[in-house]
Amino acid sequence: MDVTLSKKVAYQILSHFDKSYRWFTRITRGAQSRFEQGQWKEIQLASKERITIYEQSLSDAVADVYHLTEVHKKNDEFWQELKKTFARQLEGHPQFELAETFYNSVIGRLFKHRKIDNSMMFVLPSRCFLPGQDRDKVIHSFDTTTTVREMYVSIFKIYRYGIPFEDYERDMQNLEEALRKRLTTQQLASVHTVELLKPTFFRGKSAYLIGRICMPEETLPFVISLQRSDEHTLFVDALLTHRSDLSVIFGFARSYFMADTQNPAEVAAFLQELLPNKKHFELYMSLGHYKHGKTVFYRNFLDHMDTTDDHFEAAPGIRGLVMMVFHLPSYGVVFKIIKDEFAESKKITREHVKDCYRLVKMSDRVGRMADTHEYVNFRFPLARIDPLLVEELKETCASSLEFTEDELVIKHLYIERKMTPLNLYLQQEEDEDKIRSALNELGLCIKQIAMANIFPGDMLHKNFGITRHGRVIFYDYDEICLMNERHFRALPKSDDPYAMDMLSVGPTDVFPEQFEHFIVGKRKLKDILKSLHGDLMTPEYWHEVQMKCARGDIQHFTPYNANVRFNRGVKSISK
């Protein structure tokens, strides 16, 4: 065993991780300046760059490993020792869990994900992280023995920004009134701790201070939402103290936050205490550590498999023309595989589908497009797969399957949060108000995706899901494109019954007036959608959106309910 070589390789892998995290931090740290200066386009570019960092750093690390050693001439003993050596180098490392994932990625790339073995990779973490040991590094605590007003003043002495408040006095008063309205006098008197995470959470045109109010009987989220005005001033938009609001802010259909910290495990643990219903992997992903989120998901998946006995089966809903989708009924995700052959109506390729999913990953999902995560050589125990599903997978996705004696290996798949398909929801729901709300959400979803410069393409309501919060989310991406890649046309106005037959239609032509015939099926639902969002069925609406996208307009859609936003009233610059 060449111990010296093992140390060299481990050192190089860790060096590449550290360089990658410094790069990640540099982009994240620039979020405050971009927010203050209103550099909305630069914010989107920075988000895209930060997503690409991992793959670039991984490629560099793998190249170095090949330079240092003859990879495929080394036996398993070498790789097992390398893992142990790497683990020793992580002693005291503030991002050890992310570094382990990076190491896994290197080994996965070297062996094409064929050696998913805990003796060679960190399938399980090398150590148990105890939340709270570094808590003082990630939170500020505020004195609650003073008045509510004085507490807020002390908060904004610590959290300072390079632009003035639009109206400091108004904002302090709004914050105080909101807290007094939320808590009774007795509750206010019982507050013993107010904590805020040190990093400001930047995303899009908003910034958030995220923390909690602690009382003897309960703990509430405490989130101050900040925005920047067109006059280059700062204003407080809302105070959020309900977990449902915080859950939507951290929703799986939103872009990743820019939150600068050197202790991501501690930040994720604090957020988990605020949002116990969120999976730990979702919180890592929300911080931009999507690769580590995938690692934590896989560990969560293995734990779930050990404690359940239900079987994988085809997901409920209408079968897709491009994707085969299945799920484990007791687990909150779906697994999606690209089919070997598509229906004649789908003039696309397998690579096109992958490109569409990459486009969504790199775009601002504006709370309306589900985040997806790509895996290769994902293993499922055959004994837990319904035989009918196995047969259907063989019929539709054979090229993506590999069978061993006791496992099904899927060479390429996506995971995505499980939602109720909107078509099933509308079939089953009897409450008229909920039906109307869901259809309003459907229209808003289509509009907001379009304003994010993405044309959804196939807008059948079966391609949308509805969350437990009643939000409609788009999740079928095989026909999406940028807004400028479609030509929105009006249908001919003519008494000639053959006018439609003679209409010349190009491959990029879209006729919005026809949307009403296929977005939803039943006449009653069509009428409701038209009454709420009839403009979607006009080419003029889509031309206007195209013009805004061409100008580079960046839209902002507040993730929480509009009725909690503060009244800004008269503007005056202060502080």
UniProtKB/TrEMBL annotation:
Belongs to the AceK family. Residues 10-308 form the Isocitrate dehydrogenase kinase/phosphatase (AceK) regulatory domain. Residues 310-561 form the Isocitrate dehydrogenase kinase/phosphatase (AceK) kinase domain. It is found in: Cytoplasm. Its EC number is 2.7.11.5, 3.1.3.-. InterPro entries: AceK_kinase, AceK_regulatory, Isocitrate_DH_AceK. Keywords: ATP-binding, Cytoplasm, Glyoxylate bypass, Hydrolase, Kinase, Nucleotide-binding, Protein phosphatase, Serine/threonine-protein kinase, Transferase, Tricarboxylic acid cycle. The lineage of its organism: Bacteria, Pseudomonadati, Pseudomonadota, Gammaproteobacteria, Alteromonadales. The keyword Thylakoid does not apply. It catalyses: L-seryl-[isocitrate dehydrogenase] + ATP = O-phospho-L-seryl-[isocitrate dehydrogenase] + ADP + H(+). ATP binds at A315, P316, G317, I318, R319, G320, L321, K336. Bifunctional enzyme which can phosphorylate or dephosphorylate isocitrate dehydrogenase (IDH) on a specific serine residue. This is a regulatory mechanism which enables bacteria to bypass the Krebs cycle via the glyoxylate shunt in response to the source of carbon. When bacteria are grown on glucose, IDH is fully active and unphosphorylated, but when grown on acetate or ethanol, the activity of IDH declines drastically concomitant with its phosphorylation. The gene is aceK. This is Isocitrate dehydrogenase kinase/phosphatase.
